[in-house]
């Protein structure tokens, strides 16, 4: 799940904002552990609550 791996998504978002980058941010996960709908909702919540997007 987002936030549990090696990629620091929050830092990437902070860096993009600091560089005044505007536009789409696309993130994906190669594997899906559990129900895909539940994982998508959890990932969306992470991006909203932890990254502000």
3D architecture notes:
- With 53 residues, the protein is mainly alpha-helical.
- It has one domain (9-51).
- Helices cover 49% and strands 0% of the residues.
- It contains two helices and no strands.
- The model has no long low-confidence stretch (mean pLDDT 89).
Key traits:
53 residues; single chain; 2 helices
What's the arrangement of secondary structure elements?
Elements: H1 9-18, H2 36-51
Average pLDDT works out at 89
Number of strands: 0
Shape: elongated
Rg of Cα set? 12 Å
Q: How far apart lie the N and C ends?
A: 17 Å
Protein name: Sugar phosphate isomerase/epimerase
Organism: uncultured Thermomicrobiales bacterium
InterPro entries: Xyl_isomerase-like_sf (IPR036237)
């Amino acid at each position: 799940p987002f936030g549990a791996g090696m990629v620091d998504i929050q830092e990437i978002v902070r860096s993009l904002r600091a560089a005044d980058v505007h536009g789409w941010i696309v993130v994906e996960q190669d594997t899906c552990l559990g129900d895909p709908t539940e994982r998508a909702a959890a990932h969306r919540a992470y991006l909203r609550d932890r990254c502000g997007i």
